[in-house]
User: Fold these one by one.
Assistant:
Number 1:
Amino acid sequence: MLVHYSPEHNVHHEWVYNAADIDRAKIVWAREIPGRDWTTLLDYFKDRRSGWSEPTDSPPKLEEYRRPEQLLPGRAFRREGP
């Protein structure tokens, strides 16, 4: 699950926690780091479905994540920041 925190996110309300054995974990959480590419992470877990979360939204959003090359032309792959 890829997580995007908005600037309004309360740092004491963390969503990103992983099991000790991350390769066998049912869900793997990853926090968005501005300017960093997710390609390596998504390639490593290529046999899994990817999700996208906006925990600051009310209610929090959980959506399927698709890489830009998986989308139809003209469709955005995620909501842009504020």
Note: The chain has a mean pLDDT of 81.
Number 2:
Amino acid sequence: MRYRILPHYTYEDYCHWEGRWELIEGIPFAMNTVNIPQHQLMISNIVSEFRNGIKKKKCKNCKVYNFIDFKIKEDVFLQPDVLIVCQPIEKKFLDFPPALVVEILSPSTAIKDRNTKFSYYQQQQVKYYIIVDTDKEIIEIYLLNKNGEYQLEAADAENSYSFELESECITEIDLSNIWY
């Protein structure tokens, strides 16, 4: 019997690649959704809403980013669509959990976002995990509970939601604004 050997890549390998990639257990995944206009519009709107909310509350430590490498292990790094970090980033990648992560679903990423990434973000103790379904106009907000597991807090795009990013930084975001 012949065994097929799959290649196994690391962050060092990735540093030599062109384009946008994620690496999960050494297997590369191309990030193709960047070129989709609806996806870009959602990212832009979400970044804008969070940036405005953070500015309004004067949360000086919290910053909103998109497409930063979140390195979990040498062979696992993810690129969330949007993330909020409330500590200084001293490397060219994030090597500690952000306060909040947003993933915008697409047909090619939905299963990975809902399962694999969900599990990694939960294991890394990312406080908020937000999944945006643009087709259904649904926003799922998962909050890490005391047991270290995600609990669905809200799945409504018509209301505001208060995010406690740091002890002194609670910002309210009008979720309905991201659709326009």
Note: The chain is about 20% helix and 30% strand.
Number 3:
Amino acid sequence: MTTIFDGRYTVDQKGDFVVFMIGMRVNKLLAFRKWIPVASAMGPMLSTLYRHPEKGFLGGEAFFGWRTILSVQYWRSTEDLERFAHNPSDPHLSAWQAFNKAIGSDGSTGIFHETYRVRAGEYECFYGNMPRFGLAAVADHIPVGDRRQTMRQRLGETNENL
């Protein structure tokens, strides 16, 4: 059962971190043999990452839409992310090679990723009556408190009239 944290919460993440969004889009619905292997490739990658936190993966969430699958991930650093992506012993490199061989640029299946470096203190989070989710699932999840009532306060800004 999921624990709901009643009230207002925020996050206190120590140090820099990386937000990595990766996913796929089914462009040709009937091309099952093209997109099913792509959709199936994420499971072994995430399984490896959850079993080996020393690789720098902090955690993440998966979202499923009509044609799109999205994984929002939190990483310790871009170096850790890149090391995982290029390591022949990890499942990403072989999945990437298989994608290029089977699909390449034929248009049947789209893939994407976005990488954001977040410097310490340069982020803001708010969760109301939620389970630990997103960054709160991988960082210190704390009550909002008197000095963190607004977005600007959580960002460490003192002038509320900007």
Note: The two ends are 42 Å apart (CA to CA).
Number 4:
Amino acid sequence: MPNENLHKAKNAKNDEFYTQYADIQNEINAYINYNPDVFRDKTILLPCDDPEWSNFTKFFAQNFENFGLKKLISTSYAAASKKYSIGYQPSLFEKSSTDFDESKTATHGKIFVLKKGSKRKVNIDDLKWKYMDGDGDFRSDEVKKLRDEADMIITNPPFSLLREFVAWLFETDKKFIIIGNLNAAGNKKIFPLIKGNRMWLGNGFKAGNAYFGTVPNREYAEGVYDLNTGLVKFRNCCWFTNIEHGKRHTPLQLMSMADNIKYSRHEQIKGVGYQKYDNYDALEVPFTDAIPSDYDGVMGVPITFLDKYCPEQFEILGSTQRGCHDSVPDTKKYDDYWEVKQNGEKTGASGGKTNENPNVVGNDGKKNYFINAEGRIVQSLYTRIFIIKRKG
């Protein structure tokens, strides 16, 4: 049963999960602390939101006056348009409303609006809703019109549509705060935006672990769903934004190269030192906290570096495998190599498979390696981001 449910979830792209209130509060507070007026007189759109369940709607409605918002718009995506909507039942919230329409409940999205009042305070009880003309898909003309009206877009979009959602955001010049998987930062469409300082990581989830609610269809979360907490755990989750916050401008505290070799908590560095890549003129730095403070050349760091990236401290030059490394070109190809398992068996793949990967000389005895006719061996590392320390 678990494998069957996971298969269903994969095919149905069941990645609609609900962000916890405390996580939203923690993230938004980072922007408020940096700029107390960041949301003042702004219209905020919360698309992909299912407002009956969404803590985004609840959070911003409850803080409407505190933040000085002008208008709050929240939209949902119709159940019939979702691939995993079998057994859908309208919520009690919807059914108890005089606006409930059984002919629209499964096929139409809903829109919730909260506007600034002229004479009295505004609170969550003032939220007004109605059915949308369409299903609420963020790509529809109806939601695009709401996007164009808004000053900011804040949401947890479906992870499977993150690249498309980011492209949708950048059709305009709006501010945004969204949730996604950190690995998406290395995507060939998204990475150039990060490199160009057009988007960056937000304040973040603790240790990169996010716990989401899943309503309904909990059975599709088999294997990651915790029956005790009612939450689904995801690793490597992050917030993406183009709004400033204090963490983004906090420099990393680093040790010198000599001190890292002497004191680092990482066995790959302590007492061993650093390697250079075989096919890039750059230093391999496998851990963000092992970046040497006194090295002025190009360094390759893991994608998790982006969570600590301070643009005043480092410049991002490019990335392996993403066609974005004109400043750090690869210096070698491996077309005359072949891939070998640790037991000596050839996989049948040529060395061209590892072209543009970050490669180092040697065999760690753990994973496949590449070898040529002269017996020279290299191994691939995970994607690396190339950085250089800013001078002055």
Note: Residues 250-392 form one domain.
